[in-house]
């Protein structure tokens, strides 16, 4: 920010020297070269695949953030209200990895591998569970948080209802049709309009995240630079999501691990890193804002993310992962969300002890997953 409140405007030349762009390109080149060498020489050991997944996740996260910055800039230049930017572009942006991974898995499964549908569903529930237990637990362990009662009544309960609605649709038809996907997307759109009906309160709650987290080092780019951010960010995000799904599936086949487990653990953890990053930045600046980031994403995932995937291709759980998903992964997610909300309602604050309980809950989930995989737990 320049002196006197003036904003410095950067052009394409500065953009090409921006560290964020250079890092994204470096990750892209590394992933493309290493992936090409691996495929050519048929190097498919677990260590190399895990390395490729880590690189793909890093590229997915940096490119998604790149896309969000470009989209926000274009929206501001077009005169869009700041509150609308915060509630749409930023909230969807932190969920972009989940959206892309889920949609990619759904599209690929439609023509080649039906088991990828299990990965898509597992990724959504896994992301929700990770964010509301492990990520939130880490944030609270770092700094106890106070909760806004008005915000909790509005968004917290909707988060639980969103998960329950998605679960009911999956339970009723063993999957999601395109119509049901459209309904989930419509519910999300109605949620946005509902929030916008009280602009003043939204500015106090959600917009604080945008102002405090995203504007600390803010400066303006030219319209062309913002457009390049959107194109490059989205292109690299789609590429990295595709590679991530491919490598995750390769590991699943090699270790004979159900796709639902890969989606709910490895993929769920990886695609939740943007929320962890934003929440950790927020917790140092504002009480309760960090939780708002996580709740907002956990409304987007069970409505918009999986809804888009169902629109791409109808989702059907395979017989191999149906019981695991319906009787372990989904109940654990619902229990995690409910536990989090109960903690929020008791005194409207999170203590470090409660953060430890949330972390322990997720670790218990991993133990149950492994016990089931080893045959010690029958479902």
Q: Can you identify the CATH class?
A: Mainly Alpha
Q: What order do the helices and strands follow?
A: EHHHHHHEHEHHHEHHHHEHEH
- Ends distance: 57 Å
Overall pLDDT metric: 78
If you compute it from the alpha carbons, what radius of gyration comes out, rounded to the nearest whole angstrom?
20 Å
Approximate helicity band: over 70%
Question: How many domains make up the coordinates?
Answer: 1
Strand content: under 5%
Pick out the low-confidence regions: 1-5, 212-218
Looking at CATH, the homologous superfamily is NCX, central ion-binding region
Task: Give the second-level CATH assignment, the architecture.
Answer: Up-down Bundle
Largest sheet: 2 strands, parallel
Strands in their spatial order, largest beta sheet:
1-4
What does this structure look like?
- The protein has 379 residues and is mainly alpha-helical.
- The chain has one domain (9-373): NCX, central ion-binding region (A middle domain of Talin 1).
- 81% of the residues lie in helices and 3% in strands.
- The chain contains 16 helices and 6 strands.
- It has helices at residues 12-16, 19-41, 46-77, 82-94, 96-111, 116-142, 149-173, 178-196, 199-205, 207-214, 223-255, 259-271, 273-283, 289-312, 319-345, 352-374; strands at residues 9-10, 145-146, 175-176, 220-221, 315-316, 349-350.
- The strands form 3 sheets. Strands 1-4 form a two-stranded parallel ribbon. Strands 2-6 form a two-stranded antiparallel ribbon.
- Helix 3 runs antiparallel to helix 11 (223-255), helix 6 (116-142) runs parallel beside helix 13 and helix 8 runs antiparallel to helix 14.
- The relative contact order is 0.19.
């Amino acid at each position: 920010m320049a002196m006197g409140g003036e904003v410095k405007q950067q052009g394409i030349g500065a953009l090409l020297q921006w560290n964020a762009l250079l890092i994204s390109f470096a990750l892209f080149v590394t992933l493309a070269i290493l992936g090409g060498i691996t495929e050519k020489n048929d190097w498919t050991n677990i260590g190399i695949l895990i390395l490729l997944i880590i690189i793909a996740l890093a590229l997915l996260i940096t490119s998604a953030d790149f896309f969000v910055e470009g989209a926000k800039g274009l929206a501001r230049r077009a005169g869009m209200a700041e509150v609308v930017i915060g509630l749409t572009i930023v909230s969807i942006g932190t969920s972009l990895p989940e959206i892309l991974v889920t949609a990619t898995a759904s599209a690929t499964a439609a023509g080649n591998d039906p088991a990828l549908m299990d990965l898509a569903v597992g990724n959504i529930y896994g992301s929700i569970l990770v964010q509301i237990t492990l990520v939130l637990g880490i944030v609270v362990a770092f700094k106890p948080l106070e909760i806004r009662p008005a915000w909790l009544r509005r968004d917290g309960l909707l988060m639980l209802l969103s998960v329950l609605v998605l679960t009911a649709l999956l339970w009723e038809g063993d999957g999601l049709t395109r119509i049901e996907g459209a309904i989930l997307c419509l519910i999300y759109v109605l949620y946005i309009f509902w929030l916008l009906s009280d602009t003043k309160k939204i500015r106090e709650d959600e917009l604080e995240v945008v102002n405090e987290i995203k504007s600390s080092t803010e400066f303006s780019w030219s319209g062309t630079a913002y457009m390049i951010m959107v194109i490059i960010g989205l292109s690299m995000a789609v590429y990295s999501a595709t590679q991530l799904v491919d490598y995750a599936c390769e590991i699943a086949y090699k270790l004979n691990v159900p796709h639902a487990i890969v989606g709910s653990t490895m993929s769920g953890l990886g695609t939740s890193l943007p929320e962890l990053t934003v929440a950790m930045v927020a917790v140092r600046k504002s009480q309760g804002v960090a939780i708002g980031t996580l709740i907002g994403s956990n409304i987007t995932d069970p409505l918009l993310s999986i809804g888009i995937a169902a629109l791409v291709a109808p989702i059907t759980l395979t017989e191999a992962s149906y019981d695991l998903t319906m009787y372990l992964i989904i109940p654990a997610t619902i229990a995690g969300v409910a536990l989090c909300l109960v903690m929020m309602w008791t005194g409207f604050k999170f203590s470090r002890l409660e953060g430890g309980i949330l972390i322990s809950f997720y670790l218990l989930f991993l133990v149950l997953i492994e016990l089931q995989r080893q045959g010690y737990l029958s479902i």
